Amino acid sequence: MIQIANLGKSYDDLKRHLVLQGLNLTVNDGEFLGIMGASGSGKSTFLRIVGGLETYSAGKVSVFGQDLQTMKESEREQYRKNVISFVFQDYNLLSGLTVKENIILPYTMMEKDEKKIEQDYTVIAKLLGIDEFENRYPEEVSGGEQQRAAIARAVIKKSKILLADEPTGSLDVGTGRKVLEMFRKINADYKVTVIMVTHDVLSASFCNRVVFLRDGQFVKMLNKIGSQENFYRSIQEEMGKMDEIF
Ligand SMILES: Nc1ncnc2c1ncn2[C@@H]1O[C@H](COP(=O)(O)OP(=O)(O)OP(=O)(O)O)[C@@H](O)[C@H]1O
Ligand SMILES: [Mg+2]
User: Fold this and answer.
1) Which atom of ligand 1 is nearest to the CA of 89?
2) For residue 176, how many C-alpha atoms fall within 13 Å in the half-sphere facing its CB?
3) Is the Cβ atom of 12 under 6 angstroms away from ligand 1?
4) Which residue among 64, 100, 146, 235 sits deepest, i.e. has the most Cβ atoms within 10 Å of its Cβ?
5) Predicted TM-score of the model (pTM)
6) Cα–Cα distance for residue pair 172/165, rounded to 1 Å
7) Residue to mutate, 17, 21, 44, 53, ligand 1, most ligand atoms under 8 Å from C-beta
């Protein structure tokens, strides 16, 4: 369970500008949560805090009962390695490794069975069509291909929490849908908690709950009730209202 109480974040020491303020949220294990909001509203900052990549200025974030701010650096490293998978907005692939090496590297550090690594890799590479460019380096593939590699790298780790920052932003509708269905599957089958930032209503409709960030505050929360189509319409309607504010 992720518990967030009165979370505040400022990037300047004097705390003149609060990027996040007074955020309260509980994310239960196995939830598929969407985060929407305009550019600059604090979505990536929020994900980075939950992922243990960023400190915060006020409030408390605890994950599985562990307070992130009071963790020692070594504990934080373990937390990032063992609990969290991250799909970064800018993909964060290592330039000296091929696409395939990038994907399996974090997994190789956790799983000793090479055959299993290869098997898991083959399944996910095929599903996302990565096998065609797996031996190329990140700079030799397109943005969407890098994004697929970043997704594969995060998913193959099978961590308890998957944080995905605009994971379908550079993908065509068909590939994006495959990714979302894969998220839904790992969420349902392995009870992985997924928190996904998205600008896209269709992507958000795959979630069970969507929160809207505006100027660093949660201004609205929608729960999925009924079908995905219904949820899609509710999110779209909410976005329409938000337009007047943004
Ligand atoms: N390292 C940093 N130092 C100073 N300010 C930052 C830093 N990172 C982000 N910000 C600022 O914090 C605010 C929130 O940024 P954040 O990246 O969280 O937004 P976002 O909602 O993810 O936006 P986008 O949709 O464009 O990715 C912005 O005003 C941004 O300029
Ligand atoms: Mg962002």
Assistant:
1) 27
2) 17
3) no
4) 235
5) 0.95
6) 16
7) 44
The Cα–Cα gap between 203 and 160 comes to: 21
Q: Ligand 1: does its nearest atom lie under 6 Å from the Cβ of 216?
A: no
Which-ligand-closest: CA of 36? 1
pLDDT tens-digit readout, 149-191: 999 999 999 899 999 999 999 999 999 999 999 999 999 988 9
In this structure, which amino acid lies at residue 160?
K
Segment 233-245, tens digit of pLDDT: 999 999 988 775 5
Ligand 1 contacts CB of residue 64 (under 6 A): no
Residue range 38-52, pLDDT digits in tens:
999 999 999 999 999
**Ligand 1: centre distance to CA 45 (Å):** 6
pLDDT at position 242: 78
| Per-residue pLDDT tens digits for 96-153 | 999 999 999 989 988 889 999 999 999 999 999 999 999 999 999 999 999 999 999 9
DSSP letter string, 53-83: SS--SEEEEEETTEESTT--HHHHHHHHHHT
| Among protein residues, the one whose CA lies closest to atom 26 of ligand 1 | 39
- 44: CA distance to ligand 2 center in Å? 4
Give me the residue spans of the domains in the chain. Answer: 2-83+160-245, 97-158
DSSP classification of residue 16 = -
Give nearest CA residue, ligand 1 atom 25: 39
CATH architecture of 2-83+160-245: 3-Layer(aba) Sandwich (3.40)
